[in-house]
Amino acid sequence: MSKKVLDRRFCVAPMLDWSDRHCRVFWRQLSRHAVLYTEMITTGALIHGDQERHLDFSDIEHPVALQLGGSDPEALAVSARMAEQWNYDEINLNCGCPSDRVQNGFFGACLMSRPQLVADCVKVMKDACELPITVKHRIGIDEQEGYGPLQEFVAAIAEAGTDAIIVHARKAWLQGLSPKENREIPPLNYDLVYQLKQDFPDLEIIINGGIQTLDDASSHLSYVDGIMMGRSAYQTPYLLAEVDERFYQQAAISKTRRDVIQGLFPYIEAELAKGTRLNHITRHILGLFNGQAGGRLFRRHISEHAHRSGAGLEVLSDALAFVERSW
C-alpha cells in the first residue's frame, strides 16, 4: 500500500512550459489543498540530465505530483525512486500527450495502443517506491471507436494497481492535428468518463478537459471523484482562491490580489539572489488581474520591464500601482 494519500478533488494540470516550480509557488498563494502537477519530465532527462534542475521544488508546493514521460519499465522504476527521494507526493505517467516528439520516443498518448505495456510500467513503479502511481490518458486515439478500447486500457492498468486515473475526455489524433488542436478540436465526451466510474467503482477517477469554471468543476463531482483544470487555472488564476473552501471545506487563504503578489516577494528575492531572472517568475502572474480595472497596464508594465537585466521587486511594486490608481 502507498503511504501517501492525496485528496484529488481538485487538481491543476501538468502544462508544458507553464506549470514549472515558480508557477506552482504562485498557485500556492491561492490554494493550500489543490493537487499540483509538474510539467512532463522524461525519464531520459532525469537519468542522464541535471536531476536537481528537473526535480527541485519548494516545500510550499506540497501536495505536488511529478509527471513522467517514458515507456521503458526499467527507466521508469529508476525515475520513480528518484521522485521518492526528492519527496514528491505522487508519480503520474503521461499517456495523453499527442506531440510528434513524444510519439517518436514512444510515450504519451500512443501508449494507449499498448495497455499491457502501460500496466507493466505501473507495476514496476509501484514495486520501486511507495508513492501513489497514477496515469493520465485520453478516451482514445486515432481510429479507436466507442467505449471498448478505453475500458480495456483502464482494466489493464487498474489490475496493475494504479492508484488513480486522470482522463482527458477527448480523443487524441496522433496524425493531422497539432497538440494545441488536440486540446480543442476532438469533441469532449464526458459520458465515457462517467461510464468508467460506474464500471470501476473502486478506482479513483479524475476528469479533465474543457473545464472552464468552478461551477463546471462542481458539476462533475456527482459522477467522478475529482476534476483537473488546466488552462483556465493558468489564465485566470484568482479562481483558485475559492478552491479550498468550495472543494475541501477548509478555510480559504483569503488574500487580495495585492496580497498574493506581496506574498511572493520573499520567494522572488531568494530566487533573484540565486540568479533567476525576474521574468521567469512574473510571466506566470500576468493573468492575476484579468477583468480588473488596471489589469492591462499591470500586464504591460511587467512584460516591458521584468525581462531587463537587474529587474527586481520594484517592477512588481510599480505594476501594482497602476492597478491601484484605477480603483
Distinctive features:
TIM Barrel, 14% strand, Four Helix Bundle (Hemerythrin (Met), subunit A), 327 residues, 8-stranded parallel β-barrel, 2 domains, alpha/beta, tRNA-dihydrouridine20 synthase activity
Could you please describe the fold and organization of this structure?
- 43% of the residues lie in helices and 14% in strands.
- The chain has helices at residues 21-27, 43-48, 51-55, 73-85, 100-104, 115-128, 148-160, 179-182, 190-199, 214-220, 231-235, 243-248, 257-274, 278-282, 295-305, 313-325, and strands at residues 10-12, 35-37, 41-42, 64-69, 90-95, 133-141, 164-172, 204-208, 226-229.
- The protein has two domains: 10-248, Alpha-Beta Barrel (TIM Barrel); 257-325, Four Helix Bundle (Hemerythrin (Met), subunit A).
- The chain is α/β, with parallel strands linked by helices and 327 residues long.
- The N and C termini lie far apart (53 Å).
- The longest helix has 18 residues, at 257-274.
Shape: globular
Q: What's the number of domains?
A: 2
Quickly name the level 1 CATH class of the largest domain.
Alpha Beta
Mean pLDDT: 94
Helical proportion, percent range? 40-55%
Mind telling me the C-alpha Rg?
20 Å
Oligomeric nature of the chains: single chain
Order of helices and strands: EHEEHHEHEHHEHEHHEHEHHHHHH
CATH topology of the largest domain: TIM Barrel
Which residues sit in consecutive blocks of at least 5 with pLDDT less than 50?
A: none
Largest sheet geometry: 8 strands, parallel, barrel
Name the CATH architecture of the largest domain. Alpha-Beta Barrel
Distance between the termini: 53 Å
Identify the CATH homologous superfamily of the largest domain: Aldolase class I
Approximately what portion of the residues adopt beta-strand conformation? 5-15%
